Each structure stands twice: as structure tokens, then as C-alpha cells.
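Quick one:
INPUT:
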């Protein structure tokens, strides 16, 4: 099938995104002077905008292409949590899998932007995992939801929602129902995702998860032996169908047991802000696999989409029209 044919099927897919939900706050302003109190700029605020962040940003990216998206995660009942859930619902996302807990402090990442540049980022977070009762309810939700979706995306930001028991259950249910499962891992939680369809770490995460010291990138990528060794170890550890390692300005490296390593160079024209590029990559890669693209085709689509989003300010998304134009 042609690439256009694959893209035309994105809209009919139903995707479940699971992971750490956050709220991204952007505080916009102007800088006219340096503070007399410290050598820092004084920002006069002109506006504020809010977007779903973390795993919810993956939801945003999927929603640009697919009409049916469900999300599973945790948010507080604080004003930030209420705003986050409202933003998702307003965009047509199924939030019935979101656990809203009064004891949960919603993670908020505040970015102060002046002259189209990020001045500082302020994070407010308290890591918290599901209680035993909440975990049981999560299992019930997965039993009900996974059979109805085309694919599942698990994205771990290390904030506590994804634990090994939950990861094991997701893997088992996806396998039982023959569903595509893609994972964006976190190096610090070191969760095992045995049997996933594909896992997408970045270069640093790949070396960390493989237990290898980081090394400087080598060009050409297919001759980067430390990177290839890290990928080989991860394929053995995770027993996944594909391993897609994002490499920033070097593009992406796709590894599979039954094929030679495949490198797709970066498609970015201008790099303005790398925030959320990984979220865009996992969203488009998963959608590609869901409509029957080969892993190589899905990687190319994900690379194209990431190349577009880094040219935008903030945790932005890519539209179908933009992706079609880039092809």
C-alpha cells in the first residue's frame, strides 16, 4: 500500500495511551531589563496557555490523526488536574481510564517564554503510584478496553504511575488479544516490557537500560558499534519485535531480529524546540504499525513527523496535512 493509503487509514484507528499525565503551562512575556536583585531577566507576563503534557501529549499527537483515543493515567482533583482532564475531554478524548485522586498532586511543568526563547522551566511534582485498590480497578479497565483498540502505547515518564505489576498486565493483555503494544521507556524505572511489539528509547535511555556507559555518536550510524551493542542487548532483554532508537540530529535507528539494522537520517529543516519530539515519534510510529505499515515505513513516518515538530515552539503536534506535505 502507498504511504498516502496508509495515512488515509489513521483516522479510523482507536488507540489507548497509558502513562504519566502532566499539565504543560506556558507563561509568555517580554523582557525589557535585568533584575536589580540578581543577574536574571525580568519577564513582564503577557499571557498564559495550557496543554496536556507527558503521556497526555502523546494523546494530543495521536488525536491529530485518529478520531478515537482513550487515555489511562492519574491526575489530582486540584485545579491543575481538573484543567488537564477538561482539556482532554474538550478534544474528544475518552478519559474514563483517568484516576482522579484527591491525594494526588498533578505534575505541572511551567515554562516561561520571552522573545521566543525559554527563560526557565519550573516543575511541580510529587511521585505517586496506584494504591492496591486502584491497581485492581486499572486491571478491570484494561480487561474492558484493550480488546476494543487497534494499539496500545505505554509511555513512562518516571512519575510513578507505571509499575512492574501494571506493565506485566499490559503486556499480557496485549499479547492475549493480539494487539500492537509500543513503549516509550524511562531509564530510571527500569521496567521490563517483555514481548512488546516495539520499544522506543532515545540514545541515552538505550545505553542506560542496557547497562552500558554512554558513548559519543559515530557517523555513519550503522558503524556505531557501541550503539549497535546497546541495541542488541536491549532486544535480548525486552524480547520485543522492534527497537526504535531516536538519535536527535542523527535521525533514528531501527533494529529487528529478522532484518539488518535500518537507519533513517533526520528530516528536520530547522530545530527550534525538541520538547515533545519523542511523543510525536511514538504516536506516529504506532499509528503506522496499526494500519499495516512495515516497521521501516512506520519509522520513516515517525522521523518525518518528528522533523516537523522540532521546528515549532513548545510541546507541539503535527497535523495530517503537514505530514502529507513533508512527503
Amino acid at each position: 500500500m502507498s504511504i498516502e493509503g496508509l495515512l488515509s487509514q489513521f483516522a479510523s484507528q482507536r488507540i489507548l495511551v497509558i502513562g504519566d499525565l502532566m499539565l504543560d503551562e506556558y507563561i509568555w512575556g517580554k523582557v525589557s531589563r535585568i533584575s536589580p536583585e540578581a543577574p536574571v531577566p525580568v519577564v513582564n507576563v503577557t499571557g498564559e496557555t495550557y496543554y496536556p503534557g507527558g503521556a497526555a501529549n502523546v494523546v494530543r499527537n495521536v488525536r491529530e490523526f485518529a478520531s478515537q483515543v482513550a487515555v489511562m493515567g492519574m491526575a489530582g482533583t486540584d485545579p491543575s488536574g481538573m484543567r488537564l482532564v477538561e482539556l482532554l475531554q474538550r478534544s474528544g478524548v475518552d478519559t474514563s481510564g483517568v484516576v482522579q485522586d484527591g491525594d494526588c498532586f498533578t505534575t505541572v511543568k511551567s515554562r516561561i517564554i520571552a522573545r521566543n526563547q525559554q527563560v526557565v522551566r519550573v516543575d511541580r511534582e510529587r511521585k505517586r503510584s496506584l494504591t492496591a485498590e486502584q491497581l485492581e480497578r486499572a486491571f478491570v479497565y484494561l480487561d474492558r478496553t484493550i480488546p476494543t483498540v487497534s494499539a496500545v502505547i505505554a509511555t513512562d515518564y518516571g512519575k510513578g504511575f507505571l509499575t512492574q505489576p501494571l506493565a506485566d498486565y499490559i503486556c499480557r493483555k496485549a499479547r492475549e488479544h493480539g494487539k500492537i503494544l509500543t513503549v516509550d521507556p524511562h531509564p530510571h524505572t527500569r521496567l521490563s516490557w517483555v514481548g512488546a511489539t516495539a520499544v522506543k528509547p532515545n540514545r541515552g535511555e538505550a545505553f542506560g537500560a542496557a547497562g552500558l556507559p554512554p558513548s559519543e555518536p559515530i557517523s555513519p550510524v550503522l558503524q556505531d558499534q557501541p550503539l549497535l551493542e546497546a541495541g542488541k542487548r536491549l532486544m535480548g532483554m525486552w524480547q520485543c519485535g522492534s527497537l526504535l532508537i531516536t538519535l536527535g540530529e542523527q535521525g533514528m535507528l531501527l533494529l529487528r531480529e529478522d532484518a539488518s539494522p535500518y537507519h533513517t537520517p533526520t528530516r528536520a529543516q530547522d530545530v527550534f524546540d525538541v520538547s515533545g519530539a519523542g511523543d510525536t515519534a511514538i504516536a506516529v510510529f504506532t499509528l503506522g504499525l496499526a494500519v499495516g505499515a512495515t516497521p521501516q515505513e512506520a519509522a520513516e513516518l515517525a522521523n518525518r513527523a518528528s522533523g516537523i515538530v522540532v521546528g515549532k515552539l513548545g510541546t507541539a503536534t503535527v497535523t495530517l496535512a503537514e505530514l502529507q506535505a513533508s512527503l
